[in-house]
Design brief:
It is a single chain. The protein has 161 residues and is α+β, with helices and mostly antiparallel strands. The chain has 4 helices and 6 strands, in the order βαββαββααβ. It has helices at 19-39, 60-71, 104-113, 126-137, and strands at 3-12, 42-47, 51-59, 76-87, 95-99, 144-148. Strands 4-1-3-2-5-6 form a 6-stranded mixed sheet, sandwiched between helices. Strand 2 and strand 3 (51-59) form a beta hairpin. The longest helix is centred in the N-terminal third of the chain and has 21 residues, at 19-39.
Length: 161
């Protein structure tokens, strides 16, 4: 069955702070993990108070079904499909959920892939968005909410913000 990678962003409608936002994202990651094992999908989700940016990899029909479900999710609006490409092999292992906050290191990363030192996928090309997601998966644990994956992939523990 053919593999694909779909990348999209949307506006974050969740207006929680502190532990509530962290709990919500942990719930999203837990849901991703359950679905990952059942569907064979992998991916990355990076978010801030304004945007969700996500890549999903797996069987094309499975991702398509998941996109329809996500389109109905009230936590976001204005979903924009940035890229849908066939894959020979996965670029992402497991699921990574990261917070696109503000720090010297993250601001430099945003500036490397976009026109400004802030996380705003509306101002980025498809190639830059995919590169930014890949760069986030390679950051140290200080920038992760949580990471998970198949056996052998070290899980990074959540950090306090």
């Amino acid at each position: 069955m053919p593999l694909s990678q779909f990348v999209f962003y949307s506006r974050n409608l969740v207006k929680l702070t502190g532990g509530s936002m962290r709990d919500m994202v942990k719930d999203i990651l837990a849901s991703c993990n359950r679905y990952d094992h059942a569907s064979g999908m992998t991916g990355a989700l990076v978010f801030n108070e304004d945007f969700f940016l996500q890549a999903m990899e797996g069987e094309t029909s499975t991702i398509s079904e998941q996109l329809w479900a996500l389109a109905a999710d009230s936590r976001h609006s204005g979903m924009v499909l940035v890229s849908a490409v066939p894959l020979q092999q996965r670029a992402l292992r497991g699921w990574m959920v990261g917070y696109a906050g503000r720090s010297e290191a993250l601001n430099a990363l945003y500036l490397q892939y976009g026109p400004t030192a802030k996380f705003d996928p509306t101002e980025m090309s498809a190639g830059a968005i995919i590169a930014l997601l890949q760069a986030f998966t390679e950051l140290d644990a200080n920038h992760f909410v949580q990471r998970s994956g198949p056996p052998g992939l070290a899980e990074k523990k959540p950090v306090a913000r």
